[in-house]
Amino acid sequence: MFPDIYLILKPLCIKASAWNKVYVYVKLIKTIKMEEKKMFKSDDIPYRYAMCNRDNCSLCKHCLRYRAYDEVGRSQKLIFIVNPLFIEPGNCEYFRTDEPATYARGFTRMQQEMLPRQYDEFSARLRGRFGRTGYFERRCGKRICSPAEIEAVKSVLKDLGLPELEFDSYLKKINWCD
To answer: Which of 66, 111, 116, 121 lies deepest, with the highest CB count within 10 Å?
Structure first.
């Protein structure tokens, strides 16, 4: 459906022929493979995010810290870098995958599927974990649930015997800090 390669072309000149045909002469500027497309912009990187500049590491192709450094490392004067003296290439405790994680938004439909006592227990446990405001913001979808929070909600559902209930919607985004 989508091409594997994008070509960026720059128009050089347009000439018309005597037979009313238009010829556009272009110059190939850059070829971009799908894997090289940027997953995020430098504005998406959290403030003071620890980056990594070890390009000799076997994990750097899919390391979010390295990809963040690759994005802003040459343009910003002040950046935070994980100390290279404490990094073992290929076996890094600071590795963070660049694969987008699944986040969830809202769980109002869960309330409709529960009995009143089940919902009271469910909401009491989650209010204890998220706080009152945090619970209601997550329930109505104003605040998205991280992968760790999704697991916490599913754990409570499993304890109540309702493991089949789902969130209102799901979205994929980069997991910077969980």
So the answer is: 66
